[in-house]
Amino acid sequence: MAAADTQAAPALPDYVTDPDAVLKDTDVNWRYGRAPDYSKTREVFAETKIMNHEALSLPHLVENLVKNWEVEASFKPTLSDWRTIDQEKYSFAINGSDPQDAYYMLKQGTYNAIIAPNEYYSPEYSDFASSHKTFKRMMPTFAWEVLEVYSGPPTVSFRWRHWGVMKNDYVGFNNKGEKVSAKAHGGAIDIQGVTVATVNEALQLQSIRTWFDPMDMFRQIAPNGVVKKEAVDKSLPPGDALDSPVTAEIDQTPRPAQDANETTLPDRTKSAAGDAQELMAAAGCPFVGHDGKAANKPYEPRVAMETREDGKEGENKFEHPNAPLSEGTIETLREGKQEDAERDPYVKMPESLGS
Prior knowledge:
4-stranded antiparallel sheet; 11 strands; Pathogen-related protein; NTF2-like_dom_sf
């Protein structure tokens, strides 16, 4: 084939070939005025990863794409600066929840957007700043890698791993607004999950659907369930409340169950009947008249004998006392819209229409 007939394959975008591609962006708005430093996280990744993907292989490209996306989602507050997503179609969802757009993550923060309220942490009582204090202080480096890729573009499904070391105490707000803290144990925190993502021709993310167990992380943070809970001043911004020394420890000592025999319930039997009479009389219910006593009188059931096809008497059937059929309705039934209406023991035929 002539050289003129050959076309070079389009170059891959840098955000799938270089895990630090977007960190080199200059003409963008960085959250804290400059690009963040990921050098320590990259060192931990290189030293403790369990996979070693071949350069430019599909797992390697997916891994780099997600790493660059995480940097942009966390540190680029202007959505138009994100290069890793399809601006018009992008959405994400966690554990089958309703899809959200990128603005939701920008407002809530990456941690708040993916963690549901629980006894250790709640996005309802945390903002972007406090969420980063909670997790980045506890675990200064939180590396991420792709374990397996199950399908290629445009729908990319893969399993991943997120890990680090709990070097400092965990401090966050739970679903009751309480300040929860757990002592650092110096051990590893390692979670895994599955993601199904779609990408466009430029390998930009269009949708992200992720499934993982966030409680797995908290079970590793407090393996024995031992935490300290404190009430805080909710007038303070969450980031300030995390650092505020003004707290009140909450007593978590289990209280003994009260003996049921010692419980005395109020006696309401004496006034119940009189109260009912007064209430019904005052209400003037149109179905019972204005006499309260009539409301306590049960309806008198009327009995109709069921006639069986063999001519023998059947069981007694009670007619409904409140819904007699009109003569016109009975005539309609007799005309054939309902067979054997006259034999229905629940329908009382007026004598003028009886057979």
